[in-house]
Amino acid sequence: MRFSARSPSPSPVRRRRSLSYGLQSSSYSTSSSEEDDSQTDSLSESDEYSSGSSGSSPVSARAARETGHPSTSTSSRVAGTLSASRHAQINDTVAAIRLRTRHHDPYEEWAKRTRRDAFKNARRAITSAQSQRDAARTAARERDAERQAAVLKQEADDVARRLAHLSVLQEVKEEENGIRWNDQQKKRQDQIEGVIRSEVEKRRMEEERLAREEAERLRKEEAAKVAAEEQRKKEEAAKAAKEAEEARAKADEEAARKEAERMEQARTQAIDAQAMERSALGMTTPGEDWRDARLTLKQLKSGPIARVKANRDSKKMWNEIRRMITPRVGQLTNEPRVIANISQQIMQILRPPAALHPDVYHASLSSLAKAILLQAETEVTAEKRSAKPLAQLTLNSMNVLDGFSAVFWAKLCQRTGGWAVPAPVPSQDADGTPFTSATRVKASGLREETSADHTARVAGIMRVYFSLLLLPPSAPLSREFHMPRLWLFVARLIRQPALLQSSLATELLSVALEVGGSHARSVWGSQWIKLMALLYEGITTDPSPLGGSGPEARASRVRLQLEIERVMGSG
Predict the structure, then answer these.
(1) Where is the composition biased (Basic and acidic residues) (predicted)?
(2) What residues pair up with 428 in beta bridges, in sequence order?
(3) Distances (CA, A) of 181 to 185, 187, 489
(4) Are 467 and 387 in contact (CB under 8 A)?
(5) Phi/psi of residue 396, each to 5°?
(6) 201-215, 283-297, 301-315: which range is least confident on average?
(7) Which of 275, 409, 418, 493 has the fewest Cβ atoms nearer than 10 Å?
(8) pLDDT confidence of 117, banded at 50, 70, 90?
C-alpha cells in the first residue's frame, strides 16, 4: 500500500494552509487502522525527511525539498510563526505516521507469498505441459518416420518385384522375338529363292514365246502376201460391182428425192391448210398458247408493273390494294353468300367510284391473280373442296374486270410452266431470247422444292383451273376458259411423250378426271370413252408405263386408273 502526502505550495497562502496538514493530534493518533494502512508508503518517505534534518520539523524538511528553498530558513520561519502546542501536535502526527509505516502486516506477506507460489506452480505446470507436448510431438514424428519408412520399404519391395517380373517378361519376349526373327529370315530366304526361280522360269518362257512369235510372224507374212493377192482380185471385182451398184443407187436416190419433195410439198400444203382451218376456227397449238401467255406476262411486267414501281404514289396505292385483296381471298368458304360478298368487295376495291390509273389497275389485276393462285397452291393442296370457291371468285372477277382473263392466264402459265397448255418449255423465250439454265428453270415454274411438293403445288392450281372450266359463265370468256379446254388438255397431254414420262402428267390427268371426267362423258359421249380407253391401255398394258417408274409415279397411276374406272362406270 502507498500513501501520498501533498507537498507544500510555494504560494504563501497555500504554504500556510499546508503547514496545518488539517490534522488534530488527538484525532489523527486515534485514527482507524484502515487509514493507517493506506498511508504506509507516504510515511516511509516522511521518515527519510525527518532523519535528514535534525534541527527542523519533518514538514519543514519536506517543504524545503519540494519547493527548492533551504530547509533552515524555512523551519526558522515556521518556528517563528507556530505556537508551541501546534508544534507538539505536528510532532505527534509525524511520530504516529512513522510508527504506522514501520508496522508489519502478515496478510500482505501471505498474499505476496501466495502469488509467488501460484506463479511458481503455474510455471511448473506450463513447463510440464510443454514437456508433454514436446514428447508427444517427438513420439508422433518417430511414428510417422517409422510408418513412412515401412511404406517406402514396401514400395521398394513392390518395385523390386515388378522389375524382376519385367525382367522375366523381357527375357521371354526377347526369346519370342528371336524365334520370330529366325522364322522371318527363313521366309525371306525362301521368298528370295522363289523369286529367283520364277524369274528364271519367266525368262525361259519369254524366250520360248519370242521364238513362237517370230515363227508365227513369218507364217502370217506369208499368209498375208497370199491374202493380199486374193484381196486385190476381190477388190477389183467389188469395185466393178460397186460402180454398177452406185449407178443403180443414184438413179433410185434421184427418184426418192423427187418423191420426198413431192411429199414435203404435200405435207406443207396440209399444214398450211390445217393452220388456216385452225385460224378460221379460233384453234391454236400448245406452243402458240404458251407464247401468248408468256408475251402477256412480259408486257405486264415491263409495262404497267414497272411504271407503278417507279412512281412512289402509284406504288403506295398498289400496295394498299394488295393488302386489301390478299386477306379477302383467304376468307373464302364454300357458302355462296360469302363468295358473292367477297367478290363484291374485291370489285369495289378494283373499281372504285374514282377510276384507278390504268397502270395501277393492271398491276392490281396481277396481284389478284397471284393471290388466287397462291391460295390454290397452299389451301387446295390440303383441302380439295376449296378449289370451287376460288374458281367461282375467278369467274366473277373475269365477268366484271376487263382484262383479268388474259392476266390470270399469263400468271397461271407462269406458276405451272408449260403444264397448263400443256407443252414443254422451249429453249427460247417468247421474244426469241435464248433461255439460260436459271431463266429456263424459272419459266418452267420450278421452285426450291421437292418433286412431291412441286406435284402437289401444280395439281392444286390445275384443280382450280379445271373447276373454272365447268362453271357456267354469265358473259363470254376468252378461249382458254371454255369447257372444250378440258378435252383439249387431255388430248394434248397424251400426244406429248416427253411430258408423259413425268409423274406430274398422270397426277394432272387424274385431277382432270376427278373434277370433270363424268361431265365430259355426258358432253362428248363415245368420243370421251374412246379417249379413256386409250389412256387406260397406256396405263395397264404399255411396256413403258406412264409417269415413269418411281413410287410417286406408281401412286399417281393407281389414282388415274381408279378415276378412269369411275368415269367409265358412271354411265
Answers:
(1) 134-147
(2) 434
(3) 6, 10, 84
(4) yes
(5) -60, -40
(6) 283-297
(7) 275
(8) very high
**Do 547 and 431 share a structural domain?**
no
Task: Answer yes or no: do 436 and 312 share one domain.
Answer: yes
Do 343 and 313 have their domain in common? Answer: yes
CATH code at position 292: 1.25.40.510
Distances in whole angstroms, Cα of residue 406 to Cα of each of 17, 279, 287, 289, 402 = 141, 19, 16, 11, 9
Of 38, 69, 103, the last residue of a domain is: 103
Q: C-alpha grid cell for residue 261? A: 419433195
Does a structural domain hold residue 123? Answer: no
- Residue 52 CB coordination number (10 Å): 14
Q: Let me know if residue 427 belongs to a domain.
A: yes
Q: Are residues 53 and 29 in the same domain?
A: yes
- Rounded to the nearest integer, the mean pLDDT of the chain is 80
Among 417, 445, 480, identify where a domain stops: 480
**Model confidence pLDDT, tens digit, residues 156-210:** 999 999 999 998 999 888 888 889 898 888 888 888 888 888 888 888 888 888 8
Directed axis angle between helix 358-375 and helix 451-470, to 10°? 110
DSSP assignment of 209-270 equals HHHHHHHHHHHHHHHHHHHHHHHHHHHHHHHHHHHHHHHHHHHHHHHHHHHHHHHHHHHHHH
Number of folded domains that form the chain: 3
Q: At residue 274, does pLDDT exceed 70?
A: no
Within 10 Å of residue 112's Cβ, how many Cβ atoms? 10
What is the phi/psi pair of residue 145, to 5°? -65, -45
Q: How many CB atoms lie within 10 A of CB 86?
A: 14
138/463 Cα distance (integer angstroms) = 104
Q: Nearest to residue 497, comparing CAs of 422, 403, 428?
A: 422
Could you tell me how far CA 313 lies from the centroid of its own chain? Answer: 41
Helical packing angle, 336-350 and 312-330, nearest 10°: 180
Same domain for 504 and 440: no
Using a cut of 0.85, tell me whether the model's pTM lies above it. no
Asked whether residue 257 is assigned to any structural domain, the reply reads: no
Q: Does residue 306 sit within a domain?
A: yes
Domain carrying residue 504? 483-571
CB atoms within 10 A of CB 276: 10
The reply to whether omega before 422 is within 30° of 0 (cis) is yes
Give the Cα separation of 130 and 209 in Å (integer): 111
Q: Is residue 537 predicted with pLDDT exceeding 50? A: yes
344 and 475 in a common domain: yes
